[in-house]
Design brief:
This protein is of the alpha+beta class and 103 residues long. It is 20% helix and 10% strand. It is built from two helices and two strands, in the order αββα. Strands 1-2 form a two-stranded antiparallel sheet. A hairpin with a 4-residue loop joins β1 and β2. The longest helix has 12 residues. The termini are far apart.
Length: 103
């Protein structure tokens, strides 16, 4: 008797996936026009994730943890906050193999 195996999404990030996300405009925009670099659909997770509508930004936000979600709840009601951009991409740097030292 064979056991059923549930397929999970690929969670690897390679140059092809990065190029696709950039082409889609992920990580760009402000307010309602912002597109998160990663959404809850992009990563395999056995944990908790949240999709929440932001009253300040007028769009759906994607949070990959309860901590992100709880911080958002605070920031969405904070008068000093003008925009909230989750899953913001960090700038990539190139490191040549000669600069990597194994300890």
């Amino acid at each position: 008797m064979e056991a059923a195996v549930m397929a999970y999404r690929q969670s690897t990030v390679d140059e092809h996936k990065i190029a696709r996300l950039q082409k889609e405009g992920r990580g760009l925009g402000r307010g309602a026009e912002y597109k998160p670099w990663l959404t809850i659909y992009d990563l395999a997770s056995k944990g908790r994730s949240h999709r929440v509508f932001g009253t300040k930004t007028r769009r759906i936000h994607h949070f990959l943890s309860d901590i992100e979600w709880r911080l958002f709840l605070h920031l969405d009601w904070c008068d000093e906050v003008a925009d909230i951009r989750e899953q913001f991409p960090l700038e990539r740097i190139s490191i040549s193999p000669g600069h990597i030292r194994m300890s």
